[in-house]
Backbone:
C-alpha cells in the first residue's frame, strides 16, 4: 500500500531529527561540550523554550543538573533527592516518560519555584535509559500550553537514550584519558626508563619520557614502533650473547621476571650500563603478549665501584708502603751514612771516592722513591723547603729518559738563575714524572718531550683573565708532540679516575695526583691542546721569599766542626746506632747508645754525667719514644729531645711527635739534616 506524502513526512522527519541529533552529540569527546549540545539540540528539535539534562549520581540517590538552556546557569550543579515528589524523580522511579499540560493545574508533582517564576506552562520529561536502567532524565519546558504528541514523546525518548549512551561513552573515554595521563605522569616522573615491548615481534609499543630521552633524543617516533634491539643496541640482530641474552626473550620463554645487566647504545651515540628488569604481561589464556621493560642507568654506579676498587687498591698500596717504609728507611740510613763516611775518608781523586758517591746518590734516589710511593698512597705529609726546580729536573733527567723510552727524545730548556720555590721536592718530582708519563702515552710511535722552566710574572690584568693571582711564579712547561686532547674531554683530564686508556692500562690518577700536589703547593695548573697537535701542561709555583736551599753536594758531604754535648742514641736497629755514633763521634760528641726504652733508662741511670740530647726512634717494642722522653725529662730535667722515625707520618702522628715545637727528623737520616737539627736544638747554648 502506498503512503501519502504526509504519512511519509510523519515517519521520515523524526528519523532525520534523530540522525542529526546523533551526529551532533557524537562529534565531541569533551563532556561539558557534549552536555551543551544535548540540551541545545533537544530544545531545537522539538521547538522548546527550555531544556535540561539531569544525571543520576554514582550512588543513584540524587539527580544532578549538568546543563540547561533557558534556566539560570546557576542551577547547573544543583541536585534533588530521589525521595522527593518532583516530575524528574517520578520519571526515574517509574522509568516512563511523563508530560505536564499545565503547571497551573498540576497537582501530581511538586512544582519548583523557578517554574512558577518563569511562568512555564508545559513539560515533557523522559528517562535516559541504558540497558533498561535509568541513567538520568531529559526535560523540555514550554512557556505555552502544549500537548506533546506521541511522535514527539517517542523522538524525545530516543534522544534521551542516545544522549545516555553518548554520555556514558564520553565519560568512559574521559576516565581512560585521565587514567592514561595519570599513569604517564607517574611513569614520566620516574628516573627509570620504562618501555612496553610487544612479543614475539620485539616492538616497542609504549615508552616513558626518560626512555624516549635516552634512546630517541626526545622524539617519540624514534622509539615507539621500532624493534627494541635496534633502539637500545643499535643492532638489527637480537641480543644472543651468553653474557648479554635478551631479557625480554628470557621473560617470554620462562614466563617470569628477569633481572640482568646490559650495555646499551644511547641516542646521542654514547653508551651506558643498565640494570634491566623485564616482567611478563599475559592475556586471558596465559600467553605472554607484552613485556614491561624497566631499566636503570648504573653507569655512574659502575664508575663509583671502579673508584672504590681503585681506592681499595691504593689503600693496599699504602699499607704495603707503610709496612716496608720503616725497614727500608732504616736500611737506607745505614747505606747513606756509611757512604758519606767512606767518601770523607777517601781522597776525591780516588776511584773508590767516586764509587762511594754513586752509592750515596743511589741511596738518596731510593729514599726519594720511598717518599714518592708514600705520597702517592697519601701516607706522607709534605716536607716544605726552598727547592731549586732546575736541580730537581736535571736530577730526574736520567730516570725520565728510561721511563719515556728511547723512541721519545727528551729536551730540557731551563732558565738561568731561576728563583727557588717553597715545595716538597719529592712531590714536585712526582708532578714532573706523571706529566712525562702522560706525554709518553700520547706518543706510542715516538716523538719529542720538552720540559722548560721560566720565571713568569703575572700582573693584575693577566691574573684576572687566567684566574691566577698576580705575582711571581716559577713556570714548568711540559710539552709533547703526541695525539693531543679532544676539546670535549679537556675539562675532565684532572678528574680523579678519568682515563681514556684501555681497561687495565690506566688508573685515571696520574693527572689528578698532579692537580692535587700543585694545589697543595698553592700553585696553578693549565693545559693547552688541540687534537692531533700535542699537549702542553704549564705548572705555576709561587716564588719563595725564604732562605736558599742546601745544594745536594753540601748535604752529601760531612760537615766539619766539633760538638761537646753528650747524646744518647736509642734505636732498635744496630747499623743505625753504629753509623750515628761513628759520625757524631768524629765531630767531638760523646755518644751513648741503647737498643730500646728500658735499656735507655738503665744507661741513663748508670751514667754519672750529663746527658744533653736524647736522639730516639719513635716506635719501639718496649717503650715508645714519646714515653721514653717524658720519663727521661723527669729524671733529667732540661734534656733536649730529637725524635726520628722511618714510618710514614700518618702512622706516627698519634704519638704526638709531629706537633708544633717538637723536634722530628725523617729516616733515612741525612747527616746534613741531622746537624741542622742538632744546631736548632742547641740554639745559643754554648755547651752544645
Residues:
Amino acid at each position: 500500500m502506498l503512503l501519502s506524502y504526509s504519512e511519509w513526512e510523519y515517519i521520515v522527519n523524526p528519523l532525520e531529527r534523530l540522525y542529526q541529533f546523533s551526529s551532533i552529540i557524537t562529534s565531541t569527546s569533551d563532556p561539558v561540550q557534549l552536555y551543551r549540545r544535548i540540551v541545545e539540540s533537544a530544545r531545537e528539535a522539538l521547538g522548546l523554550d527550555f531544556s535540561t539534562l539531569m544525571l543520576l549520581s554514582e550512588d543513584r540517590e540524587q539527580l544532578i543538573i549538568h546543563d540547561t538552556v533557558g534556566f539560570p546557569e546557576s542551577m547547573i550543579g544543583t541536585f534533588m533527592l530521589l525521595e522527593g515528589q518532583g516530575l524528574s524523580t517520578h520519571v526515574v522511579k517509574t522509568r516512563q516518560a511523563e508530560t505536564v499540560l499545565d503547571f497551573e493545574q498540576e497537582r501530581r508533582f511538586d512544582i519548583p519555584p523557578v517554574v512558577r517564576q518563569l511562568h512555564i506552562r508545559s513539560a515533557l520529561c523522559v528517562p535516559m535509559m541504558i540497558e533498561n536502567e535509568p541513567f538520568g532524565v531529559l526535560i523540555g519546558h514550554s512557556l505555552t500550553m502544549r500537548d506533546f504528541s506521541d511522535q514527539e514523546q517517542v523522538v524525545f525518548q530516543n534522544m534521551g537514550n542516545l544522549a545516555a549512551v553518548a554520555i556514558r561513552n564520553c565519560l568512559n573515554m574521559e576516565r581512560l584519558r585521565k587514567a592514561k595521563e595519570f599513569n604517564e605522569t607517574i611513569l614520566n616522573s620516574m628516573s627509570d626508563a620504562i618501555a612496553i615491548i610487544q612479543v614475539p615481534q620485539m616492538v616497542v609499543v609504549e615508552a616513558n619520557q626518560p626512555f624516549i630521552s635516552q634512546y630517541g633524543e626526545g622524539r617519540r617516533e624514534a622509539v615507539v614502533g621500532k624493534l627494541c634491539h635496534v633502539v637500545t643496541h643499535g643492532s638489527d640482530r637480537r641480543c644472543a650473547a651468553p653474557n648479554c641474552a635478551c631479557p625480554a626473550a628470557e621473560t617470554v620463554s620462562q614466563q617470569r621476571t628477569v633481572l640482568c645487566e646490559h650495555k646499551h647504545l644511547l641516542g646521542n651515540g654514547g653508551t651506558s650500563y643498565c640494570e634491566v628488569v623485564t616482567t611478563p604481561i599475559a592475556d586471558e589464556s596465559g600467553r605472554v603478549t607484552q613485556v614491561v621493560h624497566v631499566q636503570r642507568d648504573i653507569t655512574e654506579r659502575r664508575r663509583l665501584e671502579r673508584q672504590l676498587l681503585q681506592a681499595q687498591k691504593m689503600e693496599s698500596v699504602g699499607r704495603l708502603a707503610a709496612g716496608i717504609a720503616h725497614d727500608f728507611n732504616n736500611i737506607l740510613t745505614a747505606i747513606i751514612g756509611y757512604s758519606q763516611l767512606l767518601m770523607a775518608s777517601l781522597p776525591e781523586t780516588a776511584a773508590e771516592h767516586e764509587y762511594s758517591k754513586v752509592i750515596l746518590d743511589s741511596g738518596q734516589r731510593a729514599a726519594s722513591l720511598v717518599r714518592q710511593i708514600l705520597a702517592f698512597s697519601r701516607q706522607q705529609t709534605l716536607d716544605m723547603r726552598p727547592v731549586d726546580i732546575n736541580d730537581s729536573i736535571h736530577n730526574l733527567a736520567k730516570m725520565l729518559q728510561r721511563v719515556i723510552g728511547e723512541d721519545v727524545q727528551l729536551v730540557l730548556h731551563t732558565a738561568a738563575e731561576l728563583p727557588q720555590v717553597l715545595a716538597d721536592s719529592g712531590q714536585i718530582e712526582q708532578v714532573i714524572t706523571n706529566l712525562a708519563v702522560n706525554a709518553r702515552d700520547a706518543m706510542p710511535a715516538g716523538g719529542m718531550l720538552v720540559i722548560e722552566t721560566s720565571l713568569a710574572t703575572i700582573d693584575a690584568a693577566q691574573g684576572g683573565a687566567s684566574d691566577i693571582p698576580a705575582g711571581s711564579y716559577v713556570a714548568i712547561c711540559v710539552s709533547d708532540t703526541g695525539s693531543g686532547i679532544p676539546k670535549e674531554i679537556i675539562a675532565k683530564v684532572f678528574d680523579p679516575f678519568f682515563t681514556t686508556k684501555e681497561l687495565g692500562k690506566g688508573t685515571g690518577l696520574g693527572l689528578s695526583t698532579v692537580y692535587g700536589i700543585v694545589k697543595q703547593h698553592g700553585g696553578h695548573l693549565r693545559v693547552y691542546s688541540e687534537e692531533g697537535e700535542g699537549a702542553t701542561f704549564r705548572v705555576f709555583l709561587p716564588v719563595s721569599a725564604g732562605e736558599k736551599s742546601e745544594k745536594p753536594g753540601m748535604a752529601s758531604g760531612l760537615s766539619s766542626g766539633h760538638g761537646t754535648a753528650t747524646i744518647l742514641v736509642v734505636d732498635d736497629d744496630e747499623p743505625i746506632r753504629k753509623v750515628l755514633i761513628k759520625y757524631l763521634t768524629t765531630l767531638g760528641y760523646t755518644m751513648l747508645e741503647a737498643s730500646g726504652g728500658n735499656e735507655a733508662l738503665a744507661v741513663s741511670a748508670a751514667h754519672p754525667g750529663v746527658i744533653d740530647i736524647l736522639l730516639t726512634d719513635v716506635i719501639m717494642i718496649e717503650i715508645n719514644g714519646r714515653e721514653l722522653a717524658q720519663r727521661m725529662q723527669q729524671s733529667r730535667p732540661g734534656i733536649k729531645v730529637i725524635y726520628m722515625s722511618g714510618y710514614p707520618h700518618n702512622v706516627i702522628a698519634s704519638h704526638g711527635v709531629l706537633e708544633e715545637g717538637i723536634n722530628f727528623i725523617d729516616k733515612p737520616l741525612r747527616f746534613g739534616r741531622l746537624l741542622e737539627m742538632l744546631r736548632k736544638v742547641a740554639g745559643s747554648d754554648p755547651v752544645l
